[in-house]
Design brief:
With 155 residues, the chain is of the alpha/beta class. The chain contains four helices and four strands, in the order H-E-H-E-H-E-E-H. One of its GO terms (biological process) is methylation.
Length: 155
Amino acid sequence: MGNNKAKLNAFHHRLAQLTFFDPACGCGNFLVIAYRELRQLELAILEKVHKKAQLLEIDTLIKLDVNQCYGIELEEFPAQIAQVALWLTDHQMNQQVSAMFGVYFVRIPLKTSATIVHANALQIDWRNVCPHASFIMAIRLLLAKIFAIYNKMQI
């Protein structure tokens, strides 16, 4: 990663604008991994820009949040697990921020959350869940479901 602070800050700002959508999210594994890796990237950017200095207002520098994640899950319990898993991942990443910059950082009370909808992804308009997805994940799984339904109709 380069050392140009202006470019790093612009990249950081762009990362904060991305949204991630999994139309068959299950317990949220793809969303959790994507969010964790993005937060790791954010941490690397902040480390380059601020060089591990003790920052008093770290909360103003952390731009990524779980509200960038969207999902649809057919079953209610896995949808709830996905929601909680993203909050737990956020907390783990906040602990890394605290360790790196020497300032306790926590987002409590929880003010934002991922949008995980309990519904059938084949029967709802995805734009109602995530109007502007930057990335759609797990599409192969959903396509497999569509083809299975199609094949049943052919019998």
